[in-house]
């Protein structure tokens, strides 16, 4: 008898949740004289986000550095909200994951995202709680 336990492992970004940093750039542009495109480039093309997602900076450090680079004038809470609300579920994949769980198949979710995103996702999407 095989007693080996099998798991199904999902990536979070672009599998269970789609994301679009252009949404964050549009929101953050409200707090900056810079254009959305410039802010998006700072998020996507500079090492800021990668350094944060590696865990090298705290949330406060990341947003302070992003604020300087993008000339943002907003509270930490405003920045976190604008930066985090970029996710939409991929219904077919979330449904598939839920069906596995209902059948007793253990699932695991991996991601290389940051603490701001994880806090938002846990609050906004019950499947990740």
Question: Main traits of this protein?
Answer:
single chain, 129 residues, mainly alpha, DNA polymerase, domain 1, two-stranded parallel sheet, two-stranded antiparallel sheet, 51% helix, elongated
| Overall pLDDT | 95
Mind telling me the C-alpha Rg? 17 Å
Query: Structurally, how many domains make up the residues?
Result: 2
Judging from the principal axes of the Cα atoms, what is the shape? elongated
CATH topology of the largest domain: DNA polymerase, domain 1
Helix-strand pattern: EEHHHHHEHEH
Helix segment tally = 7
Q: First CA to last CA: what distance?
A: 34 Å
At the fourth level of CATH, the homologous superfamily of the largest domain is Putative phosphatase, domain 2
Q: What is the strand content?
A: 5-15%
State the name of the first-level CATH class of the largest domain. Mainly Alpha
CATH architecture of the largest domain: Orthogonal Bundle
Structural class: mainly alpha
| Uncertain runs | none
User: How do the strands line up in the largest sheet?
Assistant: 1-4
Indicate the percent of residues in helices: 40-55%
Largest sheet: 2 strands, parallel
Number of strands: 4
